[in-house]
Amino acid sequence: MIKTAEQYIESLRDGRVVYQNGQNVKDVPTFPAYKQMVERSASEFYIAMLPEYRELFNVQENGEEYSFAYKIPKTGEDLQRRRNITQTLSRLGAGGSKLTGVDGLNGVAYAAHTMDKALGTDYGKRVEAYRKWCQDNDPGICAAVSDPKGNRELHAADSKQQHKDFYVRIVDRKKDGIVINGCKLHISHSIFSNELVVLPSRNHDESSKDYAVSCAVSCGTKGVKFIGTDSAIAGGGGHPMIIFDNVFVPNERVFLAGEWKFSRLYATSFARYHRLTAATYKHVQLQNIAGLARLIAEHNGLTHATRIRDMLAWFAMYTEMTEAMGKAAALDAKIDPQTGFAQPNHVYTNCAKYWFADNWHQAIKYLQDIAGGIGGTMPSEADWQNPETKPYIEKYLGGVAGYTTEERLKVLRAINGHSSAFMGILTIHAEGSLSAQRMALYQQADWELFKAAARSALNIPTDHPNFKNISRESPWKLPK
Ligand SMILES: Cc1cc2nc3c(=O)[nH]c(=O)nc-3n(C[C@H](O)[C@H](O)[C@H](O)COP(=O)(O)OP(=O)(O)OC[C@H]3O[C@@H](n4cnc5c(N)ncnc54)[C@H](O)[C@@H]3O)c2cc1C
């Protein structure tokens, strides 16, 4: 089934415990600071029902209709379709409540099936039963991966850690389930989701096997508590801390419970899908930024200047490269022969995330350079509305004739917003810090092929199938 926006709003009234800026939030849908996020999230459900989007957003199978988000990706085209959905939502100012969790579900499903094949465990069936439940109930779902970690040099169970709960762990095993304790940090849109897909953020060794845990937990479960991001930093609860205070998880929702050798696979499988999602929504954001750069250059009458054009050309490259790598990562998917899952090209998806994150501050530098100082010193919206000050602002903050001062101010305010520390930190760290992509790239790059390419160029023999028996001498010769 697919949920209506109204059903989604009701689903947030499940007794969840939420704290925001010193208050205990009694009712998420009507909490004033959450209005925008609630509307944004509900809009995803609304849009999915509109005739012009229904076919893109949903799947018809055996007489049932369910959200495409919950379909197992089997082809590169499936991954690309998910990108289309994410970009459509981003353009329409909607979405969020399924953004990360679908990657969590697919990452966990792939890892669970792979582990089952290796160990003879039976987690894959549980994940697929959970997926079926998602198809039938259409929840908002988010991935709860990042642990607070404490001393990053130490493993989770190291006795030198200040306490044992820097990573979510199993504290009790019962006949019918497990009890988990700990915290997950920065979990985007989780206050507006229904389900948390919990999975490890890193590898764990045998001494830390209780930290190798993955499960699904409903947001209203006893012991789950959300502490929203400071509203002064990011609006609407943003990316909260989630406390798991001795939370019971029934066996059917447990997808990893101590098989420590596989915790890394859970983390990396999720990241592989999630970095594709990152490149996908980021492209829409970068189109916006490139547009702001061009608009303010036009407002300032500077589009003829070579130095401004150079920066604008860079914006076009920055934006379109992100999309090109995202599209390539989806369409050059690897279809896993064991599980049938389509996974984004591992190298391309990491390149895409690294590329946009590593260049973000350069983009902001250019944006601020083109905009000029007024991007940091402009009067407030209230002064624009005040009839005593508006005429001065209107007169002196105008630019090239033909553009209104109001438009110029809107563009400048947006440039200021994108320049925030929050946006910089989000771009660098969300979906994994830069070193996480470098590590993945180092591990996934085809070094044998690269070495063979170098050997072949040097006329050193190589057994690599792509270069074997290739002579570097030109196959075509000039007549003697
Ligand atoms: C806005 C935002 C939204 C997010 N949304 C989500 C979400 O929805 N779900 C989720 O699970 N997570 C989310 N994250 C978390 C994100 O994935 C992490 O912030 C990221 O993985 C970095 O982890 P960290 O913040 O603990 O920083 P750290 O891992 O502490 O990184 C800080 C620096 O230390 C370095 N470092 C860390 N450990 C080591 C080490 N052992 N040796 C050497 N160097 C090291 C890193 O390379 C980096 O340079 C979000 C983050 C942000 C900012």
Describe the 3D structure.
The structure is a single chain. The chain is α+β, with helices and mostly antiparallel strands. 48% of the residues lie in helices and 14% in strands. The protein has 17 helices and 14 strands. A 6-stranded mixed beta sheet has the order 2-1-10-11-7-6, with no helix packed on it. 42% of the residues are buried. The mean pLDDT is 96. The site of flavin-adenine dinucleotide has 20 residues, from strand 5 and helix 15.
Strand order of the largest sheet: 2-1-10-11-7-6
Report the span from N to C terminus.
75 Å
Q: Per DSSP, what share of the residues sits in E-state strands of 2 or more residues?
A: 5-15%
Biggest sheet record? 6 strands, mixed
Shape: globular
The count of DSSP E runs of length 2 or more, i.e. the number of strands, is 14
Low-confidence stretches: none
CATH superfamily of the largest domain: Butyryl-CoA Dehydrogenase, subunit A, domain 2
Ligand types: flavin-adenine dinucleotide
Total of domains: 2
Structural class per helix/strand content?
alpha+beta
CATH topology of the largest domain: Butyryl-CoA Dehydrogenase, subunit A, domain 2
Instruction: Let me know the average pLDDT.
Output: 96
Binned, the helix content reads: 40-55%
What would you report as the Rg, rounded to the nearest angstrom? 25 Å
